[in-house]
Design brief:
With 329 residues, the chain is mainly alpha-helical. It contains 12 helices and 2 strands, in the order H-H-H-H-H-H-H-H-H-E-E-H-H-H. A two-stranded antiparallel ribbon has the order 1-2. Strand 1 and strand 2 form a beta hairpin. The protein is globular.
Length: 329
């Protein structure tokens, strides 16, 4: 935890991670192969949002996913099952994390970034309650848009209208594309997110998400309808890039479940006396507090390249506030 005497930014938080916020070293020059190996080992060989989403995708595909040939025409049976494959994990993961962290308070304030609790009796939120607001926009708006997009893509796959692959015919490509999906997601998210921060679009659309200055598990994809129409266009890459339905399933959970953890408000999930899993993302937590910084993800350092990177320091906060003032004057 950062000492407030070393950086006054630490005073503004209950828990402030040590040092500058980390970025993927894959893009560093000169190359740092050991650092890159450590970065991806932490992402794929520990309990993280990536590994959780992969387990969910494989489980859903093996046990619950409809046969692709049944999707050649739009029919209630398979369409309802796809909707359930979106809704049930979202409710279980977001609802479970919210119960553990904010209702039962199972780990107290341990590694919680913000001192404050989630907001109640505030007219800024639908139903005057942050959690109910977030649940509505997640299950009502986000799940609807995501499901409709998936219906169209699976239908196109089933009819051979888009390039598809099988694991038997192209195992190497299937693995490579699976590993690349999080990077594609980060690339897409950065540019869509920058667009949403245009003052006019922000005021009418993205402000729904940014009501959540202090975030919780249900905040992850609590978005306006128009924002969800943009956000979930990331799935349309599967209309172009040869994919297997499992790729879209993994992409689905990464896009929908991963934000639940990154918006949890806690850096780690604790089991007994052990840090059991990585959860909250301080990189994005800074974005929710200071708005005009860290538009992307730590996977691709667009923010560093374009001058909007907040590394968690007081100096970065000063720069971000000046940039925000310039944007709105």
């Amino acid at each position: 935890m950062t000492d407030a005497s070393q950086d006054p930014e630490a005073v503004r938080w209950h828990y402030h991670p040590d040092g500058p916020v980390g970025l993927n070293p894959l893009f560093n020059w000169p190359p740092r192969p050991a650092a890159v190996l450590k970065w991806y080992s932490r992402a794929w060989l520990q309990i993280t949002s990536l590994t959780l989403c992969m387990v969910l995708a494989v489980t859903a595909y093996v046990f619950f996913f409809p046969a692709l040939e049944t999707m050649q025409s739009f029919a209630p049976g398979w369409m309802f099952r796809i909707w359930l494959l979106n809704m049930v994990p979202q409710i279980l993961v977001a609802g479970g994390l919210h119960w553990w962290l904010y209702m039962r308070k199972g780990q107290g304030m341990y590694k919680k970034f913000d001192r404050r609790d989630l907001t109640r009796n505030n007219g800024s939120f639908t139903f005057r309650n942050q959690v109910w607001d977030n649940i509505w926009w997640t299950l009502g708006s986000a799940m609807t848009v995501a499901t409709v997009y998936q219906w169209v893509i699976y239908w196109a796959m089933a009819n051979g209208y888009v390039p598809t692959v099988t694991w038997a015919s192209a195992p190497v490509w299937c693995v490579v594309w699976m590993l690349f999906i999080p990077m594609w997601s980060g690339l897409h998210f950065y540019w869509v997110h920058r667009l949403e921060h245009h003052p006019k679009l922000y005021k009418h659309v993205h402000a729904v998400h940014h009501r959540n200055v202090n975030i919780g598990p249900w905040s992850g994809i609590s978005n306006h309808w128009y924002e969800n129409l943009l956000y979930f266009t990331t799935y349309f890459v599967h209309l172009i890039v040869p994919s297997h339905p499992l790729h879209l399933l993994f992409h689905t959970y990464f896009q929908q479940i991963s934000p639940v953890l990154s918006h949890s408000g806690f850096e780690k999930l604790r089991a007994g006396d052990t840090d059991a899993a990585r959860a909250g993302d301080f990189f994005h937590q800074l974005h929710h507090r200071y708005f005009e910084c860290n538009y992307g993800t730590s996977e691709i350092p667009f923010d560093k390249w374009f001058g909007t990177y907040h590394d968690g320091s007081a100096d970065a906060t000063t720069r971000t506030r000046a940039f925000k003032k310039q944007m709105y004057t």
